[in-house]
Amino acid sequence: MRLIRLIRQEIPQNLRSLAIMTALSALSTSMLLWVVDLAAKDAAKGQMSVRLLVLFAITITLFGVTHNYVLVTASQDVEGLIHRLRVRLFDAVRRADLVTVERVGRAALHGALTQDTQTLARTLPMLVIGGQQATMLIFLALYLAWLSPLACVMAFGFAGFSVALRFSRMAALGPQMRAAMGAEMAVFDGLTDLLRGFKEVRMSVRRADGVVADAARASDSARRVNTAMKALWGQEFALLQALFYVLVGLMVFVVPLFTTKYYEVVVPATMAALFIVGPVGTLAHVTPLVTQTEFALANIESMAALLSTAAGDAPDENARALDRPPSRIALRDAVFSYTDAAGNPVFSVGPLSAEFHAGEITFVTGGNGSGKSTMLRLLTGLMPIKGGALLADGEPVEPERMQSYRDQISAIFSDYHLSRRLYGVADPDPARARALLERLEMQDKASVQDGAFSTVALSTGQRKRLALVVAQMEDKPVIVLDEWAADQDPHFRRVFYEELLPEMKAKGKIVICVTHDDRWFGMADRVYHMNEGRIEVGRIGPEPGGAA
Ligand SMILES: Nc1ncnc2c1ncn2[C@@H]1O[C@H](COP(=O)(O)OP(=O)(O)OP(=O)(O)O)[C@@H](O)[C@H]1O
């Protein structure tokens, strides 16, 4: 069972003390019952025993202390466990290659990282309580057996029947629960469409209707499954309550048929039966959560396995460093294919051979879908090439050095994400940040304070300028810009091609730009033109006629 394995692996340190305290708490409950029974008998004789009162106080204190210890310690351990699971998943995501993350899908990853870990956060503490109540029931069973074996068999026969009934009904709901999880995921997908595509939704009634109808359909199917489960829960809750009253009836009406000791057996047995109602109710509620927890764990594990299987036996990409910053990077006969879910290639690039030199500007051009971004993904080591080689200074970049290789590259991809915090810059120098913001004409819009931009709520072109500030501050030997200028105004586009790129070149950087701006093709020292996943034309040396 995943749950037990996880608990033993992740939180072994307090298991023994938790078990002892749980037993003590259960023991104190049985003692409480015994003391109450004795006190009731005294009361029937018109007496009150100080000794019993003291014993009662001690028992209550013992119960309070141990109960509190179990709940607090277990919830601390459980939260620690969830935190470690999450961090491990974050880590698996950061180590996964881009193809895998795109194939697994952001919604599924999001689901595992939020929904499933939240399920654990909700169910695990309940299971701890369930464990405690189960222990309590064992002690109550012993007490009842000591009073009357028949009462014990009847009470626990009922209890076992109640829990088994609920468990079997919930287990039968397994496929529906899976369907509900799928439906919740679809709801999340729909919400993402609605929020990410908010402008498009606002612009068209037809689109809005379609997006909302899909999300509503998903939500409706989640509603149906959840309603069915809750209806079942309601029926069982009512049935369980009725069964408990039947149990009390059995104690009062049936047990006396087999004993003459009414006060010694029937009264305390009835009282004990009342004491077991709470724990059995909790157990009946909690037991099905085991299935939910197992689902969530299975999902988290399968996500982690997917991410790590994709990495397979691949060596640790961070194991070794490059010997020096590269002054030349290249693809040699590199090939790669995107595949569909069945593994069939849907688009192939290559064989690609291209070189990129320090102190040179290289443009990559070509029509939409010709494979430019794919080539950049291969060149930057984001996706593993399936044949040929990726070279740094003429040497193949070994998989163990891939992270070190990537760390030599600042890249702004067309679908880049700008964080407010300058994560990639160790200790952002405010003076340098100011100078760069001025160079990019952004000094009136944003500043860098405490390692973060004052704002990223800016226009698309402005955000791209901030991304270039980050790339310049990272000051790496290779800079890759995928259609960076596409969102810039004519003035700044000129600044970019005629001033910024030459400045980077003068600093000796390997400058690589994907561009459609044929007006400035002459600025490049090399141009690779792509078509249908291949390099069609490679020009080396300045174009006759030069810049505009
Ligand atoms: N994640 C993906 N999964 C499957 N196929 C993809 C994926 N990304 C791109 N492709 C395929 O690869 C082809 C090349 O895409 P790529 O993004 O490299 O083109 P591009 O030249 O950069 O285009 P654009 O100028 O429009 O940005 C596309 O035609 C598309 O069919």
UniProtKB/TrEMBL annotation:
Q: Which residues form the ABC transporter domain?
A: 329-548
Q: Which residues cross the membrane?
A: 20-40, 52-71, 136-161, 237-259, 265-286
Q: Which GO terms describe its biological process?
A: peptide transport
Q: Name one GO molecular function term.
A: ATP hydrolysis activity
Q: Which InterPro entries match?
A: AAA+_ATPase, ABC1_TM_dom, ABC1_TM_sf, ABC_transporter-like_ATP-bd, Cyc_pep_transpt_SyrD/YojI, P-loop_NTPase, Type_1_exporter
- Spell out the GO cellular component terms annotated for this protein, sorted alphabetically and separated by semicolons: plasma membrane
> Any idea where this protein resides?
Cell membrane
Keywords for this protein: ATP-binding, Membrane, Nucleotide-binding, Transmembrane, Transmembrane helix
Q: Which Pfam families does the record cross-reference, listed alphabetically? A: ABC_tran (PF00005)
Q: What is its main location?
A: membrane
What's the protein called, per UniProt?
Answer: Cyclic peptide export ABC transporter
Organism listed in the record: Azospirillum griseum
